[in-house]
Design goal:
The protein is mainly alpha-helical. Helices cover about 50% and strands about 0% of the residues. The longest helix is centred in the first third of the chain and has 16 residues.
Length: about 180
């Protein structure tokens, strides 16, 4: 085995590729684990981040949203397992190979869409979402933000269980690019 990439052989790279397969196939479990790790992380909100994610996804599911929109609603804050700052961009990069381009951009920019509801309290511009008004995914991003994400902080809201979303996570994260092509 090489100690520098520029010394690798075809055989080395075939071996490395084979060793990656189990890790890639385990992606659904890692996503599930990131969601579970949000339990107890309240960050000052009335709910912890797991309940918020489940409430957002439950609301989308009950509204008849597409599987991809339900998935985005569930996962939009998993970047907070790494950093609250830029969590949308972190999440977007984690899911990019598994979702459509529209979904990627919705999650990547969701904080700017959320700013409509609170940025003015922090001395920031409220209408940062308008910079994306000509994008084909703008209406979906508004729906995600305004109908589900910003409204999902009710600790009394009866959420669907994390386990109930496992088939959806498995569906999207079992094979990179498979669901992104179908969306």
């Amino acid at each position: 085995m090489f100690t520098r990439m520029d010394q690798g052989t075809k055989s080395d790279w075939e071996h490395i590729g084979q060793e990656h397969v189990p890790h890639i196939k385990d992606m659904p479990n890692r996503i599930y684990g990131m969601l579970a790790s949000l339990e107890g992380v309240s960050l000052g909100f009335a709910t912890d981040q797991l309940h918020h994610s489940l409430q957002t996804a439950t609301m989308a599911r009950r509204a008849g949203a597409s599987d991809e929109m339900v998935l985005l609603s569930l996962l939009h804050d998993i970047g907070k397992t790494i950093s609250v700052i830029n969590h949308g961009q972190i999440c977007a990069e984690i899911i990019k190979a598994y979702v459509s381009d529209d979904a990627y951009h919705i999650i990547r920019t969701h904080q700017d869409f959320q700013g409509e509801h609170y940025y003015h309290f922090q001395g920031k511009e409220r209408d940062l979402r308008l910079q994306f008004k000509d994008e084909p995914w703008f209406a979906k991003a508004e729906q995600f933000t305004d109908e589900w994400d910003q409204a999902a902080f009710d600790p009394a809201y009866e959420v669907d269980s994390l386990e109930s979303f496992k088939p959806l996570i498995d569906k999207f994260f079992s094979v990179p690019g498979q669901m992104a092509k179908a969306a």
